[in-house]
Amino acid sequence: MRIFIDTANLDEIREAADMGILDGVTTNPSLVAKEGHKDFRAMLEKICEIVDGDVSAEVISVTCNEIVKEAKELSKIHDNIVVKVPLIKEGLKAVKILSSEGIKTNVTLCFSPSQAILAAKAGAYLVSPFVGRLDDISAGGMELIAQIVNIYSNYDFQTQVLVASIRNPLHFVDAAQIGADVCTIPFSVINQLVKHPLTDIGLDKFMEDWKKNFGG
Ligand code: G3P
Are 87 and 110 in contact (CB under 8 A)? Predict the structure, then answer.
C-alpha cells in the first residue's frame, strides 16, 4: 500500500519524506488556502522537489473544456503531477480525454460505488473515496472502500483506490486489510501511526537502565 500525505504544508511534507515512508502527496483547494500559498505553481514545484512520487493538484474548473485546459497546464509543471478532477459529469468527460492523452487523473469527491465504477470506466488513474466525510454522516466510509476494491477486482479495472479523508489510525489499518492501493493521510494522523505507549515506556526503561550501569 502506498502512503501519501494529505497536506499543502511543506514542512510536514519534508518531515514525512525524511521518515522514509512517503510515496506521494495530495492537495486540494482547501488545504492550499489553509497554508496561505499565493503561488500555486511554485508550491507544486517545491513539493515535486521534495517527493519523488505522485503529487495530486486539483483543478478549480467545473466544465469539461476548462478542466482539460487547466489539467494540461498543471501536468506541464512536473512529470509526477496527477490532476485531481471532481466526480461530476463534466469531470468524467474530461478524464476520458485526459487519460486518452496520457495525463494521469485522480478523480476526487467519490462517495458511492457507482461513482467509482464510472471513474474507472472513464480511465481514472486514481479514485478518491472520502471515508471520514461518510463517517461524519453515519454512512460507513470503510464499507465503501471494501465495495470499490471488490468491484474493481471483479472486472480487473486498473484504477487504483486511494483512501482519502482519513481521520484516524483505524482508517489506515482497515484500508490495508481491505487491500486499498493508497492511503492519503494528514500529518497529525501519520504522527499517531508511529506512536505506541509501550514503545515510549520501553525506551525510557532502556535509557534509565543504561544510565544506572554506565552513568551519564
Ligand atoms: O484531500 C481530500 C480529503 O483527504 C479531505 O479530507 O478531512 O477534509 O474530509 P477531509
Answer: yes
Rounded-to-integer distance, Cα 216 and Cα 206, Å: 13
Instruction: Let me know if 84 is a catalytic residue.
Output: yes
Residue 215 has what pLDDT?
Answer: 87
Asked whether residue 185 carries a pLDDT value surpassing 80, the answer given is yes
Cell 509501550, residue?
198
Q: Which atom of ligand 1 is nearest to the CA of 167?
A: 7
Q: Which helix (H) or strand (E) holds 170?
A: helix 169-178
Ligand 1 pocket: which of 9, 27, 28, 59 to mutate (most atoms <8 Å of CB)? 28
Ligand 1 nearest-atom number relative to CA 164: 4
Cα–Cα distance for residue pair 47/171, rounded to 1 Å: 25
pTM of the model: 0.96
How far apart are the C-alpha atoms of 68 and 94, rounded to whole Å?
Answer: 6
